[in-house]
Amino acid sequence: MKTTAPPQVILYAYLRLSRESDGSASIDTQRAARIAWMDSGEFTRWLAELGVTRDQVEVREFVDSGVSGSKPLEMRKDMKRLMQDVERPTDGPNVKRMLIAWKLDRYARSVSEFLRLIAWGEAHGVRVATTDNTINTTTATGRMVATVLAALAEWEREMIRGRIADGHATRRTQGRWGSGRPPFGYRIERRDDAAYLAIDDVQAEIVRAAVQKLITDGTVAGTARMTGLSEPQWRRLLKAPTLRGMRAHNGALILAEDGVTPIQFADPIISAAEAKAVRERLLKLATGTDRAPRSETPMCAEQSRCYKCAGRLNGGKSDKGVPLYRCKKGHVTIYAETLDGAVTEEFLARFGGFAEYVVRLEGGNDLSAEMIEAQEQAERLGQRMATAGPLMLTSLESLAEQLEASYAALRAAHDPDVREVLEPTGRTLGATWEAQPAERPRLLADVGLQVTLHPKQREERLEITWAVGGDDQAVAELLSEMEHSG
Q1: Which CATH number is associated with domain 175-292?
Q2: pLDDT tier at 179 (50, 70, 90 boundaries)?
Q3: For residue 105, what are the contacts with CB-CB under 8 A and spacing of at least 6?
Q4: Domain 8-161 top-level CATH class
Q5: Which residue has the higher pLDDT, 468 or 174?
C-alpha cells in the first residue's frame, strides 16, 4: 500500500514594533511568545493532523522594527518581503503555510487593513493566527472572531485619540501648557497639579533687549544672535502671539468660548505697543523700505565665502583702484567684475524668467479690547430693555441695532495674527535685476545664493550654489510660488 508523504510546513513569524523604546512589546518578547506557542496545544494538534513533527517545521522570520501598524501592509519592508515569499514560491507543491504574530495589533490597526490580510491569506492558502490564540482563521468562527476583535481594537484607538484631542482642547481653553519645551522667554510652572507657562526672567530680558534693538535699527539676523536662537526660530517667535502671552493653534489665535477674547497663557513679555512696532519693523525689512544704502558693498558680499576659513568676502580695491572681493585673512582675492559677472549670468539663466514676488504682512489688528467693551455695553443695554416701558423700548431697540452693527464691524476687522503673503509685482526677476541694480543683493538672498572662492591654482575658482529646495523653507516656498506663476 502506497503511503502519502507528509506536507512541508512553513511558519511565517511576523514581528513588528512601532517604537524602539516600547519594551512591553519588544521583538524579544514577541519572539519568545512565538516559541512558547509552537509547543502549545493549538499548533501541535494541527501538526498532528498533518503528520508533521515540530522539528520538521521551517520557521521564516520577518521583522518590521520602528514601523507603525497604521501603515498599509505593502508599505512595510519585511511584511512586503513576506507576502512576496508566499506569492512567488520556490517550494514544492505540497506545502502548508501559516502566518503567526504576537497579537492582532501586530498585523494591523484598522479593520479594513486586517480584513485585507485575511483575504490575502485565503487567496494564497495561508492560515493567520496569533500566539494568544484569539485569532485563527482556519474556521468560519475564527474568522468572525478576528473581524470583531479588529473592529473593537479600532474603536478603542479612536476613543483614545478622541480623549487625547479633548484633553488638549481643554488645556488650551484653560490656559494650561500641554506638553513639550516652553517657548523661549518662558518656563513651565506647576500649579494645581497642572502645567502653566511663567516668564523666565533671564530669557525674557534677552528677548526685550533684542526686541528693542530690532525696533530701533536692528535686523532679524542680528537680533537672533543676541538671543542664541536661529534666525528662522527668532522670526517665528516674533510673528507669533507668544511674546504677548497668547498662543495660536493650527494657524489661528486660541480664543475663549466667546470666540473673541484671546486666552492668556502667561504674562506678556513685551507690550502691545512693542508688538506693533515689531510688526512694523518686520514689514519695513521685508519690503526693503528701511534698508541702509549699499553702494559701497559688493553685490555678493553677504553670500560669498573663502574656501579655507569660510569667512565672508569683503569689498576692496586693487592698487590700481579696481574693485575686488577679498578674504579678510588674505587667503584669496578676485576681481569683483569676474565674480559678479559669473553670478549674474547664472542667476539670469536659472531664475530670470520667474515671476517676482514681494512679502506683504497681513493682520496685526487686535480689536479684542474694543469688542469686550461692546459686549459689556450690550449686556447693560439688555438689562435696561428687560425693564423698559413702551416709550423707551423703541429708542433702546434703535441703539441695539447700532451696537450690533458696530460689533459686527469690529469683529470683521479683528485680525490679530500677522501673516506673510506673497504678492506678485508683475515683473520677472530678470526685469527687476536689469531695472533696479540696488535690488540685486535681495534677489540673490531670496534664491539662496552661496559662492565659495577657491585659490587661483584651481581651474574653476568659483563654486556657485543655490538653496533651491534646501533647508530654507521660505526660499523653497517662494520658488515654488514662482514656478507655478512663471
Answers
A1: 3.90.1750.20
A2: low
A3: 69, 153
A4: alpha beta
A5: 468
